[in-house]
Design a protein that fits this description.
There is one protein chain. It is built from eleven helices and 14 strands. By secondary structure, the chain is an alpha+beta fold. Among the domains are: 88 residues, no CATH class; 75 residues. Helix 1 runs antiparallel to helix 2, helix 8 crosses helix 11 and helix 9 crosses helix 11. The protein is globular and about 75 Å long.
Length: 322
Amino acid sequence: MLKSIPLNVQTLYADLVQSADMANDVPGTVKRKTVDGSTYLYVSVRAGVRRMEHYIGPEDSSEAKECAQRYQFAEARAKARRSTISMLRRARMLAPPLLIGRVLEVLSRADLFDRGLVLVGTHAFRLYPLHLGVTWPGAAFATNDVDISAAAFTDTNAPIDLTEILRGADPNLEVGWHPDNNLLPASFRSGEVTIDILSKAKRGGRSPVEVKPLGVAGKALPFQEYLTEQTFDAIALHGAGVRVKVPDPARYAVHKLIVSQRRDDHNPKVTKDLEQASALFAALRHVGLEHEIEDALDDARRRGRSWKSAVNAGLKATDALA
């Protein structure tokens, strides 16, 4: 049964979203080292399990002092955010498991969500309660799979080594290869956690699609464009808060309706798809956002006869769950 999150908890989260500009606010611990009588400033910055030290400059340099002050201010803000996250977690708000939190953190620190990566799948779904101000049973929607869509990723002149970035979360990360493309990594594994990179399907097949800026072979799936066309910033309750991009909740729900009709009837993911869609529809209605549901449904139905048929069949299936 849906319940409204207490207003004070919603306020804590809203403040966290406003303050957690992780791309421009990198916290670090400033250190001093004396060499031959001169003092120099360094900063120690952590991302995932790695801690790297960078040279700032001579202590008597005004530029180095200003830079050190920015890191110190960012560290103070991060400490305040960590305190807020502790309060949210004590209020039983959903947080990612430690390793998954680290994965999201290194991707966010590398600005990859700002460049178009979108967190999809169950770990995106688990971020909607705080955004919508409602709670639902989280245990039923737990998974060790992390799905990252690169369907909307923007190209960049600078090459990105996604494998190296993810090894910031786990130095022992294992790389998986697609059977139809053994030249580029297609997935990653860390213990029980699997990280899949998804991409939009090309016309005529589901073979892996090279995501050139990331140097990976994305798992080609249909309807990724619809899912990632509208996104917003959410904060995963890990560390000092990890800013990620997730799909619009109504679109996520409609997407689940559609993909549920593309799976084999005996696939256990069908029930999970329909349960997540049903939970989001109920949450959106609970907070008075029925129009967002209708807009998302109308958008999908207008994209073709097969889309309309899948949407209507999915809606009928969710009614059967009630």
